Amino acid sequence: MQAAGYPPGTAAAEYELALLYDPDHAGAWFDYGLIQCRLGNDADCQSILDEARRRFGPLPGQYAAAQPVRPWRGEIRVGMGHSSNYNLGSDNQYIPIQIGDDAFKLELSPEYLPIAAFFSKVELDLAYQNVHHPQFSARASVQQRHPLENRGQLDNWYSANLDLTWQPAERHTLTLYSQDMHESAQDSFQGRGLRWAYLDGNVPFKLGASWGGSAAIERRRTEAAQPSYTSLLSQLRLNGSPIWGATLFATLGIEKDLPHEQRPGRGQARFYLAAAVAQANLLPGRGTAQVAVRLTDLTDSDPYSPLFGNVVRHNTQTDATLALSWPLWAQTILQAELRHFRQLSNLALFDQRETQFNLILGYRF
User: Fold this and answer.
1) CB contact set of 104 (below 8 Å; sequence gap of 6+)
2) Which end of the chain has fewer CB atoms at under 10 Å, N or C?
């Protein structure tokens, strides 16, 4: 397109549109990445050519040479939001409990009931790939949410993740990872694990998609007073562009916490199905809309606590998100996000719901 006289910016928009209609066109992927390089959008250039390599194999010489040699890339996001239940408190003011043969209702302290709050939010993602040994990479992310009201009852929410990845073969990766999370009025969470993942660009039914799977073993701790336990995790993923240029993401996952005698509920099994559909250029100003839904079923292996009688906890969760984003300037986006979470349980203490709104400004570098 540039050879025909199109300026780089116009050509980039045309290639983006072409890929929406034909996501399997290798040349369009390569040329789209090359134009982003010439526009100076290093982060976009790198990610697009990385995706082209994953889908279609080694890059032709001119495209490989165009890639930025910077080993670091990342994104920083800052924003504000509001949560109807910042502390993930119970929906129920009175909780049925049982002591011996006596059953009665216990009134919850206000700190365990829903507390709404406005909050500020900061997120940072960093990725590193060794230029001389590209099969080795690292990624780190940090998120923090700080309440702007009710701070006597609420504290900071934060998470930190670190992945160290080795690619021993073309579609296989091994990752050592660490994750830490803290939620106000909830258990702290720590996980250390090893994950194997496989990614394939060939999918039946001509979806123009890629599929992948992963399996992991993880050591977890929920809080200092409770013992560590081992979890086994597996996941199957599908990314595609089935109709009208929309991109479909789907994930099916199974997780199993091995039993530990001192842990409430002893062991746990979780099944989840997540799906998202994204449509580019759907909104004015070349905005993108994405709808995501995640359904989770959680069951303990043994009764949760003698205080609840001989009852095994069973929770079902629904998590739905609508995200709208617009490109503002080169490498800068504005995102508005509306999320609703609902958990239903046979134990009243774990009935929860939360509606959250976020307005975020992001910059890729």
Assistant:
1) 96, 97
2) C
Measured distance CA(83)–CA(108) in Å, rounded = 21
Amino acid at 268: Q
Q: What is the pTM of this model?
A: 0.78
C-beta neighbour count of 268 within 10 angstroms: 21
CB 105 within 8 A of CB 95: yes
DSSP structure class, residue 284 = T
* 261 touches 228 (CB < 8 A): no
Burial call 296-334: b when 16+ CB within 10 Å, e when fewer:
bebbbbebbeeebeeeebebebebebebebeeeeebebb
Query: Helix 26-38 and helix 8-21: axis angle, to 10°?
Result: 150
Beta-strand ranges (E) seen in 27-108 are 72-83, 94-99, 102-107
> What DSSP line would sit under 98-140, residue for residue?
EETTEEEEEEPPGGGS---EEEEEEEEEEEEE-SS-TTEEEEE
Nearest partner of 363 among 123, 127, 140, judged by Cα: 123
What is the chain's pLDDT, residue by residue, as a tens digit (365 residues)? 443 344 444 566 666 666 666 666 777 777 777 777 776 666 677 777 777 776 666 666 666 666 665 678 889 999 999 999 998 899 999 988 887 777 888 898 888 899 999 999 999 999 998 767 778 899 999 999 999 998 888 888 899 999 999 989 878 999 999 999 887 555 678 899 999 998 775 544 444 556 789 999 999 887 766 788 999 999 998 876 566 667 788 999 999 999 988 888 999 999 999 999 888 777 787 788 999 999 999 999 999 988 888 899 999 999 999 999 998 887 899 999 999 999 999 999 999 999 999 999 999 88
Q: Looking at residue 283, what DSSP letter applies?
A: E
State both tokens at 52: 């082209």
Residue 159 burial (CB count, 10 A): 16
Distance CA 78, CA 362 (A): 7
- Looking only at the bridges linking them, the beta strands covering 94-99 and 102-107 are antiparallel
DSSP labels, 35-78:
HHHHTT-HHHHHHHHHHHHHHHSSPPHHHHHHS---SEEEEEEE
